[in-house]
From TrEMBL:
One of its GO terms (molecular function) is 5-formyltetrahydrofolate cyclo-ligase activity. This is 5-formyltetrahydrofolate cyclo-ligase. GO terms for biological process: folic acid-containing compound biosynthetic process; tetrahydrofolate interconversion. Its cofactor is Mg(2+). Its EC number is 6.3.3.2. Transmembrane segments: none annotated. It catalyses: (6S)-5-formyl-5,6,7,8-tetrahydrofolate + ATP = (6R)-5,10-methenyltetrahydrofolate + ADP + phosphate. Substrate binds at residues 55, 60. It comes from Cryobacterium lyxosi. The keyword Metal-binding applies. It is an enzyme of class 6 (ligase).
Amino acid sequence: MYSDIAHRKRALRAELRERRQNLTSSERDFATAGFTENLQSLVLDLSARSISCYLSARNEPDTRPFLNWATAEGIRILFPISREDGLLDWTVGDGDEEFTGISGVPEAVGTLLGPIAINDVDLIIVPAAAVDESGLRMGWGRGYFDKTLGSMEKCPPVYAMVFDSEYLDEVPREVHDQPVNGLITPTRIIAF
């Protein structure tokens, strides 16, 4: 059973990676504008003054225009920093500096705040490979966000960012997989 689910996840991730790589620059620009507008709307609707958000990698939904807006609005932003033990530390970041972390994705540079810093935010924005109609999030297989979300006693709303085609009827589920409260695509915000 476990190997069947793991195999289905690997196959689905490969398909989704290929779709993302095949997006045209105009499709990416359209998506970025939609993501930015919908993230701004969500933050304003929730009156969030402190959020956590990831720095997007090349083929991920682009978070940078939104992060620039949030910074200009005075919203405190915590960025994840991956650790060898599979957990996440957090930083508020220092300017525009970033590096490639052990997870292979961009990470902010700044003073490490430790894993519990996430407990003080009003909204958590996470990357995802796909989200299904029940709110189950499938990540990229490293488990950083599943471990973080699964360990929180009092979790604020968690929204995953996916392209419209990555909102699926169902994704393969393993015991450790954590659901999200909603998702953001370029064309909509869905709360579960």
